[in-house]
Amino acid sequence: MAIVVQKFGGSSVADPAKIKNVAKAVTREYKNGNQVVVVVSAMGKTTDYLVKLANEIALNPDTRELDMLLSSGEQVSISLLAMAIQESGCPAISMLASQIGIITESIHSKARIVDIKTDKIKKHLDANKIVVAAGFQGITPEGEITTLGRGGSDTSAVALAAALKAERCDIYTDVNAIYTADPRMVPYASRLDKVSYVEMLELARVGAKVLHPRSVETAKQFNVHLRLRSSFNLDDPGTLVVGDDDMEIYRPVTGVAADLKQVRIAILKVPDRPGIAAKVFMKLSENNISVDMIIQSLEEEQFNNIAFTVHESDLNNAISVLEKVRQEINASEIVVDNNIAKISIVGAGMVDRPGIAAGMFDALADAGINIKLISTSEVKISCLVAKEKAELALKSIHKKFELDAKEPHIDEIAN
Ligand code: ADP
Ligand code: ASP
Ligand code: MG
Q1: CA 78 to centroid of ligand 2, rounded, Å
Q2: Ligand 3 centre and the CA of 321: distance in Å?
Q3: What is the pLDDT of residues 181-200, one digit of tens each?
Q4: What CATH number did the domain enclosing 62 receive?
């Protein structure tokens, strides 16, 4: 019997009626003769609400306690879904990550999965039960509860599919497919029937939150048969995420994405000496803060400005780390710019085509949008622009690279 992993995001389990709809999709798979493991996120915007609660108590909450709090959201949704499946006449059991044995490294708030025990899940599957697993959470070898980072339930699902050698992993969400841009921001976004792991990984990394980056990384590593589809349109085949060999051609530009959750930090008047940049970024990395775009510019003779972006959830932590470093290195000031959006284009075929970067800058210039910072790699180009220009920037670039669909897809989106 084949094992199938299905994952349903927060919007798919936002209320009891939607949970019953998910139960239908699950039992349909089960009645087709498959062993089914379902991974779910917390209901609706529960996790956002829990984060807000924590921030009302503490400016920079302890990450262990934050994980205790945030992981509670998924305990609610798994038990409700298991009840809904039982109500529809099929046996089901809900399981927390600690009960399954989803082992992560001992880092809070963005832990990586290091091992998954499959014996307990398999025992339940062999007893003909549907297993409803909590996404987003894990447990350290010491027994501490961790979370995998926002959007991490996708990664729980793909990692479970890899560990169980599942036939496929279907990620159900609130749009019909993966598009060339977020269809909420670009109504003329085009559907992609197939996208490669490499293209999707880059799109996810630069802000296309339709899949969590580590879920795509894991799918690529273990060759998981991964499909993105809609919870509200069960007959739509959605988008298949495939290996490089399955792509006939690489498009120069596969898609565009905006990341509205980055903030820019600048350290001003940093003495121009060897080892200073190493010290700044070492301290950030010791504190588990990932840095994205970096630029160093000459302020005046013997002084530089160092600017870089971090995720907004790391801002308070970064500032407290950097304030100590600033005093040690004798820099003058730390300045934060919240009004930024990172706009990126991604394409595995970009490397062979000159003029792609020029096309992007041209599209931004046509729309009268100023570029604050640029970074490039073989498969992507990113520009920082003012936050309020993000949507215009996406639409303008999307059009420039002829990605616009004939019809808008906005009415396919469930709210
Ligand atoms: P879930 O709660 O199911 O995990 P998410 O909100 O995390 O759902 O991800 C789905 C959302 O991703 C969509 O509603 C859409 O607005 C957004 N999105 C961003 N980029 C894309 C894209 N390229 N294709 C499809 N959806 C996208
Ligand atoms: N509930 C978590 C979040 O909102 C995990 C997820 O949705 O994937 O980030
Ligand atoms: Mg998600």
Answers
A1: 13
A2: 30
A3: 999 999 999 999 999 999 99
A4: 3.40.1160.10
The Å distance, Cα 41 to ligand 2 centre, comes to: 5
- Categorize the per-residue pLDDT at 273 as very low, low, confident or very high, splitting at 50, 70 and 90: confident
Residues with a beta carbon under 5 angstroms from ion ligand 3: 9, 151
Are residue 170 and residue 300 in the same domain, yes or no?
Answer: no
- Report residue 280 as tokens: 């700044």
Enclosing domain of residue 324? 251-404
pTM, 2 dp: 0.93
Looking at the fold, whether 287 and 237 belong to one and the same domain comes out as no
C-alpha–C-alpha distance, residues 18 and 126, integer Å: 28
In a shared domain, residues 94 and 221? yes
Render pLDDT for 145-188 as a digit per residue (tens, 0 to 9): 999 999 999 999 999 999 999 999 999 999 999 999 999 999 99
In a domain, 415, yes or no: no
Query: Is residue 109 within 6 Å of ligand 2 at its C-beta?
Result: no
Which atom of ligand 2 is closest in space to residue 149's alpha carbon?
Answer: 9
Q: Which amino acid residue places its CA nearest to atom 4 of ligand 2?
A: 47
Listed in sequence order, the residues at least 6 apart from 98 whose beta carbon sits closer than 8 Å to its beta carbon are: 137, 139, 143, 145
Write out the two tokens for 85.
């499946």
Instruction: Assess if residue 411 is contained within a domain.
Output: no
CA-nearest residue for atom 12, ligand 1, is 210
Check residue 251 and give its pLDDT. 82
Q: Please, are residues 231 and 172 in contact by the beta-carbon 8 Å criterion?
A: yes
44 lines ligand 2 (CB under 6 A): no
Task: Answer yes or no: do 240 and 255 share one domain.
Answer: no
Which of 40, 41, 137, 158 for mutating ligand 2's site (highest number of atoms within 8 Å of CB)? 41
CA of 378 to the centre of ligand 3 (A): 26
Which protein residues are within 6 Å of ligand 1, measured from CB? 9-12, 41, 151, 173-175, 178-179, 181-184, 208-210, 255
Structure tokens at 245: 């060999």
Is the pLDDT reported for residue 90 higher than 80? Answer: yes
Do 81 and 215 belong to one domain? yes
For 149-214, the DSSP string reads -TTTHHHHHHHHHHHTT-SEEEEEESSSSEESS-TTT-TTPPEESEEEHHHHHHHHHTT-TTS-HH
At 360, the amino acid letter reads M
Task: Tell me, yes or no, whether 259 and 234 share the same domain.
Answer: no
Question: Is 410 domain-assigned?
Answer: no
Number of structural domains in the chain: 2
Q: Is residue 412 part of a domain?
A: no
